[in-house]
């Protein structure tokens, strides 16, 4: 189910009424498109839903001009100082805070809401095309990346991911999936390949490579699923031989994702100098060679683990390192 931008606009306008997201019946007032945008699930509490809305607004508007984020949060009653019980009172608070007329403050709140819809549209445009995954979301993803070939008698890199998906639509019997494997050196011309196999819970069909670094494939599920049902499958990605990889492993979700746990096992003979968390950054920041997140310490087995919750669509989460 893709986000309907017109409906999203209407739902955001409705949420601004009265006490906004501080409303006692918030869960009944949050529309389908806001739920999809913010990753709000049926079992979430009102407090969790409120936090997800604020987090999503902050993520989507972080690059907007000064004042846009404040106006958006004020309209929704998401700012800690703008918790008045009516939108009119929050407009007056913003007018006082920014030293403008109330009508100007109201226009800024309306403009910020439009900026939020535009950001959601841009996020949707960055997502995969007409075959993009829809009708399901990720409850959990647990991954193990093995960079220690001597420990398993091989020479390639191996990633295993256990994914639990929850279906939002009836009749789901396949999943459209994507995987990117960037070259460590874009000027190199050697072998650059990937073996993909579902270990249990499905079978891989129709692998295609629109570019050398990007893989698209269909996972055929064991049966048709109804809305509300969940399914767990285990998938393996393996490079067929010695093949350098970019020094990071990240998930950039384009469907709601509730939790992501990543373990990276390094080669004891070739440990990294530094390892750090990638926690909801813009994908372009992955090219930055210096640490941009909290440093992680290798344990005695030369492994690190990072976990993430309530992932924002379109942002990057995982682990990055340098040798």
The secondary-structure element order is HHHHHHHEHEEEEEEEEEEE
Question: How much of the sequence is in beta strands?
Answer: 25-35%
Number of domains: 2
Gross geometry: globular
Tell me the Rg in angstroms. 22 Å
| Secondary structure: number of strands | 12
Number of helices: 8
Describe this structure in words.
- This protein is of the alpha+beta class.
- It has 2 domains: 5-126, no CATH class; 136-322, Immunoglobulin-like (Sandwich), CATH 2.60.40.
- 28% of the residues lie in helices and 32% in strands.
- It is built from 8 helices and 12 strands.
- The strands form 3 sheets. It has a 6-stranded mixed sheet, with no helix packed on it. A 3-stranded antiparallel sheet has the order 3-6-5, with no helix packed on it.
- α1 (5-16) packs antiparallel against α7 (102-126) and α5 crosses α7.
- The longest helix has 25 residues, at 102-126.
Secondary-structure map with pairings?
Elements: H1 5-16, H2 26-29, H3 32-38, H4 46-61, H5 68-76, H6 87-98, H7 102-126, E1 136-146, H8 149-152, E2 158-167, E3 172-180, E4 195-200, E5 203-211, E6 214-225, E7 230-238, E8 248-251, E9 257-265, E10 274-281, E11 303-311, E12 316-322
Parallel strand pairs: 1-9
Antiparallel strand pairs: 1-2, 2-7, 3-6, 4-7, 5-6, 8-12, 9-11, 10-12
Helix pairs in contact: 1-7, 4-5, 5-6, 5-7, 6-7
């Amino acid at each position: 189910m893709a986000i309907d931008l017109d409906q999203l606009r209407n739902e955001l306008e409705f949420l601004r009424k009265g006490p906004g997201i501080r409303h006692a019946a918030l869960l009944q007032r949050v529309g389908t498109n806001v739920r999809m945008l913010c990753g709000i699930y049926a079992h979430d509490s009102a407090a969790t839903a409120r936090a997800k809305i604020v987090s999503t607004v902050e993520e989507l508007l972080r690059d907007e001009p000064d004042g846009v984020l404040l106006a958006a949060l004020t309209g929704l009653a998401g700012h800690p100082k703008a918790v008045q019980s009516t939108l009119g009172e929050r407009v007056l608070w913003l007018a006082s805070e920014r030293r403008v007329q109330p009508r100007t403050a109201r226009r800024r709140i309306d403009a910020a809401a439009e900026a939020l819809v535009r950001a959601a549209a841009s996020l949707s445009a960055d997502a995969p095309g007409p075959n993009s995954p829809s009708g399901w979301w990720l409850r959990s993803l647990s991954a193990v990346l093995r960079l220690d070939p001597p420990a398993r008698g091989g020479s390639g890199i191996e990633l295993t991911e256990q994914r639990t998906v929850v279906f939002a639509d009836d009749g789901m019997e396949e999943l459209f999936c994507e995987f990117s494997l960037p070259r460590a050196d874009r000027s190199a011309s050697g072998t650059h390949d990937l073996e993909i196999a579902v270990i249990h819970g499905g079978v891989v069909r129709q692998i295609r490579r629109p570019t050398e670094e990007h893989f698209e494939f269909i996972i055929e599920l064991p049966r048709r699923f109804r809305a509300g049902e969940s399914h767990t499958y285990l998938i393996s990605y393996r490079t067929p031989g010695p093949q350098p990889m970019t020094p990071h492993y990240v998930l950039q979700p384009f469907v709601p994702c509730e939790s992501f746990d990543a373990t990276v096992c390094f080669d004891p003979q070739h440990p990294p100098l530094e390892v750090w968390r990638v926690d909801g950054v813009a994908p372009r920041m992955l090219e930055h060679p210096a640490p941009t997140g909290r440093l992680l310490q290798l344990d005695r087995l030369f492994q690190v683990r990072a976990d993430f919750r309530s992932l924002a669509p379109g942002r990057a989460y995982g682990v990055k390192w340098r040798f």
